[in-house]
Amino acid sequence: MKKSVVIFLVIGLAMSVTAFAQRDQIRIVGSSTVYPFATKVAEQFGRSTQFKTPVIESTGSGGGLKLFCAGVGVEHPDITNASRAIKSSEVEMCHKNGVKEITEVKIGYDGIVVANSIETERMDLTRRRLFLALAKMIPAGPDGELKPNPYETWKDIDPSLPAKKIEVLGPPPTSGTRDAFVELAMEGGCKTYDWIKKLKDTDKNKYKEICHTIREDGAYVEAGENDNLIVQKLQANEDALGIFGFSFLDQNSDKVQGSRIDGEVPTFEAIAKGSYPVSRPLFFYVKDAHAGVIPGIAEYVKEFTSDRAWGDGGYLSDAGLIPMPDAERKALGDEARALKNNV
Amino acid sequence: MSSSVSSSASALLTRDAVASRLKSRYRAENRFRFACASALVVGGLFLAVLFTSIISQGYTAFTQHFVGLEVYFDPDVIDPAGNRDREVLASANYNAIVRDSMKRQFPDVTGRTETRKLTGLVSNSAPYELQSLVETNPAIIGTTETVWVPASDDIDMLLKGKISRGGAEETRRVSDNEIAWIDTLEKSGLVDRRFNKRFFTAGDSREPELAGIWGAVVGSAYTMLVCLALSFPLGIAAAIYLEEFAPKNRLTDLIEVNINNLAAVPSIVYGLLGLAVFLNFFTMPRSAPLVGGIVLSLMTLPRIIIPARAAMQSIPPSIEEAAYGLGASPMQVMFHHILPLSLPGILTGTIIGMAQALGETAPLLMIGMVAFIVDVPASIFDPATVLPVQVYLWADSTELAFVEKNSAAIMVLLAFLIVMNLAAVIIRRKTERKW
After folding, report:
1. How far is A129 from chain B (nearest CA, A)?
2. In terms of residue numbers, what domain contains A100?
3. Backbone dihedral region of B150: left (phi > 0), alpha (psi from -120 to 50 degrees) or beta?
């Protein structure tokens, strides 16, 4: 008999949840690349203010924006992190669901590295070499012919490269890191062919198909979202290369080294300067309608944009975020703290 | 005569044939036994490798290096006006106090980067610990005390030998200077390895030296509580109905097939269901143990119903019939005889079902329980994670020190599972009855 009382109690509680659906802590979703930075800020924010520590889910940039744009109200997240800028289709979705005022905050840069084990020699790559090594179809002639990628070893691509089998471990298509790698490295190399570059204006779909399609014959191995695993596999296999974010290279500099791309070694300075070609900006988006309702949003933005966080030498740079130049940081920081609707 | 000879000859032949085959039969028998034994050995070996790798990586996480700071609680920095105003005490620059006490140890360290590295020897929680010391006991201001604060994760790893001191400086997480400083501190007795209490009392953190599993343990406990409160009574009620009262027809057959199917449905499906029904339709709070418990109870229900029915079936019908014969009502038969006698089997099934639910992460992903949550949940409505989710989150972290923390968390999770399964075995042994 007591048990049925318990059941009714629990069901009753469940029903009444709708009645007290209010929140006193910030909810954040979004990119797994921004997650390590956002969690640092959230923890600092929770420790140094009276507010509760925000709850952060790592859902990927696309998944985060989908949740974020689902509507206004306590059941929807307040902030979403993204490793790319919001797309116009996503802005439309937001507007359709009543999320009208959004503040975009660019927080800094992340570099994508192509690394191998420190036991072996550093690879000297270019974006074009990466494209030739990893694309499904590569140009066969100067005027628009394509052929399936024939390259087996790096030496086949360029005689100066070692005669090692092409074997690259990288993230799966759901990952923002993969998107950024394809756009920055593959497309960057692809564009070095004049006829493909011209194709961009005439046949954009074809252009994307050539530049963005990664080969599927085993040279590119999808290694899951766990970057620690890729580092371990690189240690075990000296011939393999791995693709991951700069922060992992920074943490594991005793095990792996970043390949030179277009003559630049991925270092903190090279990415901040913009001379390392495979880097991307990171963002978070704030739902302005929640700012007065959920306590602490303005203060969280303030903590994130403070110099001790995103500044040069701030704690986010310790975690691997590459800060923006002083002037840009100042301008963007003022805009963010005012929660200006800038999307 | 001749026939008897031939029959005895054939008997002799059979005996010979049997005798000659006997050896190979014994050999076959031995081979079979060996194959079975080696299967067990291989299984045991895998388990041993798993445990050794987890334990050898994880046991160091139960201790943590602390650094003793000679802290001068400088009144000019903390409370220049001297009126002990709470707001002033809370907003003082405790970073400066930590920096000054490190600098007093190493007066010849200059320059911004080097000073930062020097202060970086201790965890960045040090200023907050000083702050709470001052706030609980303002009389400390103006005195000098030795305060023990956690070493930063890299230093802790270095002292535990997980970061090597050899190799070129630029390929190491810890610079030569940092190694020299910490060695000096160690020589003067200001480095101590202590039991890592924080690991068992704190919530998640991005700093490995501050991270703990208590938040996840509490989250797991709340989730299991909700799950048990729902699935245990519902499961038993359903089993009683199906076993004792339900008519035998197409409909109950269909229900039975479905219950068996539900036990085999991949758990992520329950997560999707939870997202669609409990979060989107009933708008229950995201990440709450309440929703996690409900979702897991859906998963656990068939795993309780099936063994509960089996336990009831195994009771001899004579007991039931005797009770009816003495005039007991169906409810009395159920509650006085069948239920108490089948309880051991039901409890075993429930415990094993709960142990499975405790190790589940996939359905929780969909309802937002896979998240960075620092605060320890205070009720079933607060956001929370569970132990296996904590393991998953730490496995994805960049910091080297999370590797040992993660192995330690796995050890705690395994300990819970072993205790639960052991309880199931003991209950079965103690209460089992042969008819």
Report:
1. 27
2. 25-109+281-337
3. beta
Q: Do residue B21 and residue B134 come from a single domain?
A: no
Distance CA B138, CA B147 (A): 15
Band (A12; pLDDT cuts 50, 70, 90): low
> Residue B171 burial (CB < 10 Å; 0-12/13-18/19+)?
middle
Helix, coil or strand: residue A196:
helix
Tokens linked to A202: 């005439």
User: B393 lies in which domain range?
Assistant: 214-431
Question: Which residues between 225 and 284 in chain A have a beta carbon less than 8 angstroms from any beta carbon of chain B?
Answer: 225-228, 247-248, 251-254
Q: For residue B209, tell me if it sits in a domain.
A: no
Cα–Cα distance measured from residue A278 to residue A107, given in angstroms and rounded to the nearest whole number: 17
* Beta strand spans in B107-177 (E): 144-150
Task: Report yes or no on B11 lying in a domain.
Answer: yes
Q: Are strands B191-195 and B63-72 parallel, antiparallel or unpaired?
A: antiparallel
If one compares B11 and A310, the residue with the highest pLDDT of the two is: A310
pLDDT at A147 over 80: yes
Q: Could you say which of A17, A20, A248 has the minimum Cβ distance to residue B398?
A: A248
Which residues from A are below 8 Å from B373, CB to CB?
Answer: 53, 55
Question: Nearest 5 degrees, angle CA A12-CA A14-CA A17?
Answer: 110
Task: Locate the DSSP E strands across A37-125.
Answer: 55-57, 79-82, 102-117, 124-125
Residues 56-115 of A with CB under 8 A from B: 56-58, 75
Do A262 and A125 lie in one domain? The reply is yes
Tell me how far the alpha carbon of residue B315 is from its chain's centroid: 36
Q: Tally DSSP H helices, then E strands, for chain A.
A: 17, 13
Is residue B205 situated within a structural domain? no
Q: What is the pLDDT of residue B174?
A: 84
What integer pLDDT is reported at residue A2 of this predicted model? 53
Which conformational region is residue B177 in: left (phi greater than 0), alpha (psi within -120 to 50 degrees), or beta? alpha
Cβ–Cβ gap B398/A320 under 8 Å: yes
Query: Does A320 contact B at CB distance below 8 Å?
Result: yes
C-alpha distance from residue A305 to each of A37, A323, B317 (Å) = 12, 11, 74
Specify the 3-state DSSP secondary structure of A106: strand
Structure tokens at B220: 């797991």
- Average pLDDT, consecutive stretches of 10 residues, N- to C-terminus, chain B (435 residues): 55 79 91 96 96 92 93 87 82 87 89 84 90 88 91 92 79 84 92 93 92 95 95 94 88 90 90 90 89 94 93 92 93 91 91 92 90 92 94 86 93 93 88 76
What's the number of domains chain A is made of? 2
Strands A79-82 and A27-30: parallel
* DSSP secondary structure, B363-380, as one string: HHHHTT-SEE--SPP-ST
pLDDT bucket at A4, cuts 50 / 70 / 90: low
Output the six-digit token pair for B67: 């650094």
Q: Are residues B6 and B71 both part of a single domain?
A: no
Per the structure, the count of domains in chain B is 3
Picking from A25, A31, A57, A304 by the largest number of B CB atoms within 10 A of its own CB, the best residue to mutate is A57
> Does residue B206 belong to any structural domain of this protein?
no
What pLDDT is stored for residue B170 in this prediction? Answer: 65
Q: Which residue has the tokens 């109690």?
A: A9
Convert A280-318 to b/e letters by CB count within 10 Å (16 or more is b): bbbbbbbbbbbbeebbbbebbbbbbbbeebbbeebbbbe
Cβ count within 10 A of residue A145: 10
Between A23-32, A96-105, A224-233, A324-333, the lowest mean confidence (pLDDT) is in A224-233
Domain endpoint, select from A236, A258, A279 = A279
Q: What pLDDT, on the 0 to 100 scale, is given for residue B1?
A: 44
**Contact (CB<8Å) B395/A228:** yes
pLDDT at B5: 52
